[in-house]
Write a structure and sequence with these properties.
The chain has 193 residues and is of the alpha+beta class. The protein has a domain at 56-157: Alpha-Beta Plaits (2-Layer Sandwich), CATH 3.30.70. The chain is 22% helix and 12% strand. It contains 6 helices and 5 strands; from the N terminus they run ααβαββαββαα. The chain is elongated. The chain starts with 11 loop residues before the first helix and ends in a 13-residue tail after the last helix.
Length: 193
């Protein structure tokens, strides 16, 4: 059974709605003389903070090589399944040494319409090959233009110089300078011989 609610009768001023209109106009006039907080986009751009998670992009290392080794962890962890990777053989290029890498992505797609910008792909990547960029303008004329392929992802990500270059000294000989001052225990400077 429906519950009947008794509503009180409006008084004379409430029926006229004048106090409500006057209150609204007072607030409007107060805001007119304050400085504007609206940006005139696209002439004025918003400030992008360092921890902003925009569109994901693939990066190359300081030598211009692909960092992605096609492990497919980002494809596995992606909640909306926006990433598709087709693994292939590592490229055989005379300019770069790919001897430590077995695979490289033949094809790499991220559907930006499905991506939720969670950053899981960036966190799980063991090679630090995928990063969330500060790109927030994603517009296109069709849905297919928002499926970024490998070339577009490298354009978005660009080049990233890493402090740690884990593949750089893998082929160094045991008598090289880097290994000369390391004691047999493996810890430099502990003095154990």
């Amino acid at each position: 059974m429906a519950k009947v609610v008794d509503r009180r009768k409006l008084n004379f001023w409430e029926e006229l709605y004048l106090p409500a209109i006057a209150s609204g106009m007072k607030r409007t006039f107060a805001q007119m003389f304050k400085p504007a907080i609206t940006l005139q986009y696209p002439e004025q751009r918003p400030e992008i903070f360092d921890d902003y998670r925009g569109a994901p992009g693939l990066v190359r290392d300081q030598d211009g090589r692909e960092k992605c080794v096609s492990c497919q962890l980002c494809e596995y962890i992606c909640p909306p399944r926006a990433i598709v990777i087709v693994p292939g053989e590592a490229p055989d290029q005379p300019d770069y040494d790919y001897s430590e890498i077995e695979k490289a992505p033949k094809e790499f797609y991220i559907d930006m319409l499905r991506c939720i910008y969670c950053g899981y792909c960036e966190e799980i990547c063991p090679e630090q090959a995928i990063f969330m960029t500060d790109l927030y303008e994603l517009n296109a004329g069709s849905r297919q233009e928002l499926v970024h392929d490998k070339a577009k992802l490298y354009d978005v990500g660009g080049l990233r110089v890493d402090a740690i270059q884990k593949w750089k000294d893998k082929n160094a000989s045991p008598g090289s300078e880097e290994r000369k001052n390391v004691p047999p225990s493996g810890n430099p400077g502990d003095g154990a011989h």
